[in-house]
Structure prediction request, 394 residues.
Amino acid sequence: MKKTIEDYNLKDKKVIIRVDFNVPINNLKVTDDSRIKASLKTINYCLDNNAKVILLSHLGRIKNESDKMLNTLYPVSERLSDLLNKKVIFIDETRGKKLEEAVNNLKNGEVLLVENTRFEDIDGNKESGNDLQLAKYWASLGDIFVNDAFGTCHRAHASNVGIASILPSCLGYLVLKETTMLNNAINKNEKPFTVILGGAKVKDKIKVIENLVTKADYILIGGAMAYTFLKARGYNVGKSLVDDDSIDFCIDILTKYKDKIVLPIDTVNAKEIKEEVPHNEVDITLFKEDEIGLDIGSKTVELFSKYLKMSKTIIWNGPVGYFEIEKYGLGTKKLCQILKNIDALKIVGGGDTASAILEYQNVFDHISTGGGASLAMLEGKTLKAIDAISDKYE
Ligand code: ADP
Ligand code: MG
Prediction:
């Protein structure tokens, strides 16, 4: 068990919080502030407990000086000021006298945001390479370190793993919620436990399948990856996106777990992946050579719903169709409508899945904010930045 923010007395302390403020910005304005909002609970807890708050975050990727202009955290400081209803002190540097003085002058209940941690990547990849000197420097600015940036927890950076291995540390509310929700669903689930798996390539999800197939009762496969499984089972899948390198893996899984893996029985096909090109819905056995499979058909939706209705725990990763074109997002939407009336623990993990189900947010108990980090958890990996946090009973 890892320490949480409630395990420390924060009064008069300089608390460094690693947040995930990697938000979309256009013309120096934040265009989606949901990640900033997700960090407010932890920030406000520190402020209510009379701490001095120092915030660290990355934004985008920084390879050269010109990337800096477009990836300053200044617009985030403005938006955060509005949301907290309090002035946020923004320091446009990642180290140096200006930052040190501002930290020393910080009073209880005040918030300071440091410039984009990845500005330190220009000179030797120090942030992303978890440089020890940089971690020591940032750690020297505070007394306690809180990790509340779930989206980067699968990576070892100076601003998460580095600082945590130097200062007394703990998890913030967002990371705590993310890890508890996913962990409970994967490992302490009420059965039947069903996984909906979709997305593009089997190759990207091999570790997820290997881990979950041992834990789940059923795995319902949609998306492009279904066509690789169907090909492995001997069906003609025309010109669908098939991941030929993974056919042997699919044959192996289908043989070992034939009662767990549920594949589509019909498909929505078209000759080209374009909105204006007509589509048709056919049984899997009637695939034409020149067609691409782009969504699950209505008989498959019905088949999947039988399994979902029995389930008590459901994890969903990967859209079941090419949802970027609206008409091929219908299978994904129909599954959301079915899930709405199902009484189970319902969790979504995965960057594209989260955007595909956006209109149906209310249907789910939890939608993970971290694509890569939630995938790493589905693969059964421990997250490096969480490993680095102080244990509860030392
Ligand atoms: P996540 O980011 O949630 O882990 P993935 O990245 O694995 O999900 O998969 C999302 C992608 O899979 C989307 O871009 C979607 O268009 C694609 N996809 C789903 N079904 C198909 C299909 N039948 N053919 C081609 N691409 C598909
Ligand atoms: Mg993706």
